[in-house]
Amino acid sequence: MTLRIGVIGTGAIGQEHVHRITHSLQGAEIVAVTDVNKEQAIKVVKKQNINAKVYESGNELIQSSDVEAIMVTSWGPTHEEFVLAAIDAGKPVFCEKPLATTAEGCKRIVDAEVTHGKQLVQVGFMRRFDHSYRQLKKVIDEGKIGDPLMVNCAHRAPAAPGFKGDMALTDSLVHEMDVLRWLLDDDYVSAQVLLPRRTRFADEGLQDPHIMLLETKQGIRISVESFVNCQYGYDIQCQVVGETGTANLPEPSSVPVRSDAKLSNEILVDWKDRFIDAFNVEFQEWIDSTKKGEVNGPSAWDGYVAAVTSDACVEAKRTGQIEPISMPKRPAFYDRGQKVKL
Ligand SMILES: NC(=O)C1=CN([C@@H]2O[C@H](COP(=O)(O)OP(=O)(O)OC[C@H]3O[C@@H](n4cnc5c(N)ncnc54)[C@H](O)[C@@H]3O)[C@@H](O)[C@H]2O)C=CC1
Ligand SMILES: O=C1[C@@H](O)[C@H](O)[C@@H](O)[C@H](O)[C@H]1O
Description:
Layout: E1 3-8, H1 12-23, E2 28-34, H2 38-47, E3 53-54, H3 58-63, E4 69-72, H4 79-88, E5 93-95, H5 103-116, E6 121-123, H6 131-141, E7 148-156, H7 167-172, H8 174-184, E8 188-194, E9 210-216, E10 221-227, E11 235-242, E12 246-248, E13 257-259, E14 262-264, H9 271-274, H10 276-291, H11 300-319, E15 323-324
Parallel strand pairs: 1-2, 1-4, 2-3, 4-5, 5-6, 7-10
Antiparallel strand pairs: 7-11, 8-9, 8-15, 9-10, 11-12, 13-14
The structure holds 1,4-dihydronicotinamide adenine dinucleotide and (2R,3S,4s,5R,6S)-2,3,4,5,6-pentahydroxycyclohexanone.
């Protein structure tokens, strides 16, 4: 059986996902697309040579009996409406991050899904599908470094065109907010944001870099540097310090070159290349789980927790204080953990 997917939003990442589902992955086809920029949706259908109908609106696409599962890759502020409509129609929905732009919006989605009575929503936190993060998790889970005590991370990008306001926290660091609680199997209790000396390469009025400090329920202290105009490359670092050892996120593989009296390795410059395999695994697992009627990836609850955490970080940046993070108890509905394959 081939899963019939409808895509809402055929911009940058929508086109990437359409391409991978059509040309790299198994078991699904794109049968419907829509975009407020209809011309673009038509172009994507032609360029990617897919047999998909172009719909006038996301809601029309969701209602179509040709569409079995929905992929939401439109702008963040539109996600809540489409995810709620998919739940209302009883259809599985993959939503790129953020699940909604406010914690209240995410909570409305959680409430709607719980009322519906069956999990339908998966959120696009692709790092949980990255082989190197999965290897790191295995080392921690097997107790090879003892209990984790501290985590030191960096999220660096060469430049951040189009970044406004607090996007370094809400758009970029949200990946660490999700992946670190998954890695540690823990939740956050407080956040603090420190503002180092500003780089001259940041757009006017924008702070860069930031340091985000999180504390977990188990007392693990996390420090994440966000530096989105670092010039030199796209560089994701993570080191977990445990009671008996440390474990580092492996570097992406690259050929060590000895030349000109130098030993060098290339550094990637684009998140699309760094996480290309993770996106492929994420979507193959989503397709396979959806066909079994299951959700095994990041849930609506995880999307909600990320939004609560990023709200706390935005507030912590504003106040300069340590801000508490408190969440209602997770509904038992979300108890099944994510299955991790290596
Ligand atoms: N997981 C990841 O690493 C990444 C996730 N994202 C997320 O994916 C989403 C899309 O990002 P991009 O593709 O970079 O943006 P984009 O601006 O390139 O594309 C978004 C598309 O959505 C369309 N759109 C907006 N409102 C719509 C509506 N009401 N109905 C139908 N179409 C609508 C726009 O016309 C545009 O074509 C964002 O939420 C972003 O945060 C983006 C990049 C990486
Ligand atoms: O989601 C993403 C982008 O939106 C964001 O701008 C980048 O910083 C992230 O690394 C990437 O994964």
